[in-house]
Amino acid sequence: MALSLTVNGEQWSLDIEGDTPLLWVLRDELGLKGTKFGCGVGLCGACTVHLNGQPVRSCSTPVEMAVGGEVTTIEGLAEEGQLHALQKAWIAEGVPQCGYCQSGQIMSAAHLLATNSAPARNDIVAAMTGNLCRCGTYSRIIAAVESVAG
Ligand code: FES
């Protein structure tokens, strides 16, 4: 079945089953490898992308739910060749350790700042709770988000 998708502003028509997880469409069909597979059951946040501006777990989101919507991945966060402020902050704070979960972390943080430009520390902690990091970079993640927050 041909499905039409918009990913990072680009339109795609893909011959794919509607119940295919969005994660695998992004990675295997579109070659967008920044979105990671962690747990595969919606628990770790490594696969977080935005669908119509909302963070979703792409491992447990059937691609048919994205038809007619706008998907943004970590590759689409930078605009006009400029890294997103959060990406710059991640570099400045030296957030990543192994790095595996970080694109999901940044996508969750980007949604937080899009909805609340001046979050309190508690807001940041609450917003990031669903994104797990086995390396324990949480304090640097919070520092990076705080450095961008107005
Ligand atoms: Fe999707 Fe863990 S891989 S939430």
TrEMBL record:
<keyword id="KW-0001">2Fe-2S</keyword>
<keyword id="KW-0560">Oxidoreductase</keyword>
<dbReference type="InterPro" id="IPR051452">
    <property type="entry name" value="Diverse_Oxidoreductases"/>
</dbReference>
<dbReference type="InterPro" id="IPR002888">
    <property type="entry name" value="2Fe-2S-bd"/>
</dbReference>
<dbReference type="InterPro" id="IPR012675">
    <property type="entry name" value="Beta-grasp_dom_sf"/>
</dbReference>
<dbReference type="InterPro" id="IPR036010">
    <property type="entry name" value="2Fe-2S_ferredoxin-like_sf"/>
</dbReference>
<keyword id="KW-0479">Metal-binding</keyword>
<dbReference type="InterPro" id="IPR036884">
    <property type="entry name" value="2Fe-2S-bd_dom_sf"/>
</dbReference>
<keyword id="KW-0408">Iron</keyword>
<feature type="domain" description="2Fe-2S ferredoxin-type">
    <location>
        <begin position="1"/>
        <end position="77"/>
    </location>
</feature>
<dbReference type="InterPro" id="IPR001041">
    <property type="entry name" value="2Fe-2S_ferredoxin-type"/>
</dbReference>
<dbReference type="Pfam" id="PF00111">
    <property type="entry name" value="Fer2"/>
</dbReference>
<dbReference type="Pfam" id="PF01799">
    <property type="entry name" value="Fer2_2"/>
</dbReference>
<dbReference type="InterPro" id="IPR006058">
    <property type="entry name" value="2Fe2S_fd_BS"/>
</dbReference>
<keyword id="KW-0411">Iron-sulfur</keyword>
<protein>
    <submittedName>
        <fullName>(2Fe-2S)-binding protein</fullName>
    </submittedName>
</protein>
